[in-house]
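Backbone-to-sequence.
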């Protein structure tokens, strides 16, 4: 089993970077814009369960990679985790889209960009799932090489992400989101194992 372990650790490290994307959607300040507060509550309440799902998927991979697991177990866990992440990011995109544009300058463009980005991240995790599913678990060396490639893509994904999400949360929108309990608790989620 030792052949896959360093790769698993690399995968786990890359994966923990992916959790940062969710944190972009969370954040305390006070402002009196009821429309914006209502928008922020809608988004935060919808995003919170998804961030928990992503944190759980992260934790599952971290656990599997630290257990000297068999290639079959690693493949099964990673495949499910990537599917869960793909679903969660897609649901986040839908939540942001359903909430509509926040009542701020360029609100519609910021929303459209964030939705597009979340859907792209969802697709990327879906592609990673397919890649993991296609790995040959019978050949330890091939499996390790395949995981290394997945870890590399995951690393890129975790670094490329959240520019549009950050833009969506600039200024007043970010302040309104940070006031929401569901966004505050979403930001604490990734540390939960």
């Amino acid at each position: 089993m030792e052949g896959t372990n360093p790769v698993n650790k690399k995968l786990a490290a890359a994966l923990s970077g992916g959790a940062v994307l969710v944190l972009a959607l969370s954040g305390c300040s006070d402002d009196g814009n009821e429309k914006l507060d209502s928008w922020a509550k809608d988004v935060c309440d919808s995003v919170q369960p998804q961030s928990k799902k992503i944190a759980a998927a992260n934790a599952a991979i971290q656990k599997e990679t630290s257990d000297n697991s068999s290639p079959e177990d690693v493949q099964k866990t990673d495949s499910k985790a990537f599917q869960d992440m793909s679903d969660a990011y897609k649901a986040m995109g839908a939540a942001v889209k359903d909430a509509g544009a926040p009542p701020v300058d360029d609100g519609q463009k910021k929303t459209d960009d964030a939705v597009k980005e979340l859907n792209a991240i969802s697709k990327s995790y879906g592609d990673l799932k397919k890649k993991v599913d296609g790995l040959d678990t019978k050949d330890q060396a091939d499996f390790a090489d395949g995981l290394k490639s997945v870890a590399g893509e995951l690393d890129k994904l975790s670094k490329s992400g959240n520019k549009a999400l950050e833009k969506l949360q600039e200024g007043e929108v970010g302040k309104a989101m940070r006031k929401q309990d569901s966004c505050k608790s979403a930001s604490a989620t990734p540390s939960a194992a």
